[in-house]
Design goal:
Length: 308
Amino acid sequence: MAAYGGHLDVLIWLHDSGCPWDAQTCSKASANGHLNLLMWARKNGCPWDHGTCHDAAKNGHLDCLQFAHENGCAWMESTCQSAAEKGHLDCLKYAHQNGCPWDGSACTVAARNGHLECLKYAHENDCPWGIYACIGAARRGHLAVLKYAHEQGCPWNESVCSAAAEEGHLNCLKYAHENGCPWDGRTCSSAAKGGHLKELQYAHEHGCPWDDLTCLMALSKVNFECLKFAHENGCPLDPVLFVCSAERGDLKTLQWLFANGCPWDGVVAEVVRNVSEQYGHDEILEWCDGDDNDNEGSTLTADLQEID
């Protein structure tokens, strides 16, 4: 704690009093940019490891990173990764130019966090990248980063569209689709899962496939607008939706499903009843028994009586 807070006088007293220390002392000092404390600790024999460089780069303390490296402190790929993740271009450049290794994670975290300059530097200096750079940019809504990555040949796949859709980034979804990024049913189900109606509408209206998982995801997030849109535009309803509604005690949605033709038979009816009893949803049980006296309830009661 003394190193983390930059309290050199306290650290000196602790050390003189025989308090043990380890590599964490140097790491904590570098994490908060306490160069004088880091230098004193090393001068007095405190050990360090790659965590010192990692923490210095992560928090943008170039002077601590330089001191550590120039005095023999080890570093590894996590040093470049942490610098890129936080957008500390000066630390990233220093580490790379002085022989610190890197891997695809540097590009991935730079893209995911929207640090375009770090991504550019890494890519232009032959740092490898892969589909997760585009996925991360799309998921966080970093359109400029996504454009750069794609234009520079970074690979992408269906997960890019589904990531953009799930997080509600319509601009990224549009860009990806209009520039040839493939999509599949996960795009629609992800949009529904995130409760993003505009993204769901865009995907469907531009030919993206969907299946009953779209409705299930909409229901799982209690997003009635997405569920309604999907059904009204031909997305299939699965009987498991009844079970999900019963588990939550969501009578309104259960009634809507029944009224809108979600497949129902004696087996489904029995499951709904059992689930409702298990979770104590008396209102649904009453509806199952036709206590509401509407046509849906009467039809449902008849179905239930057939399996009694």
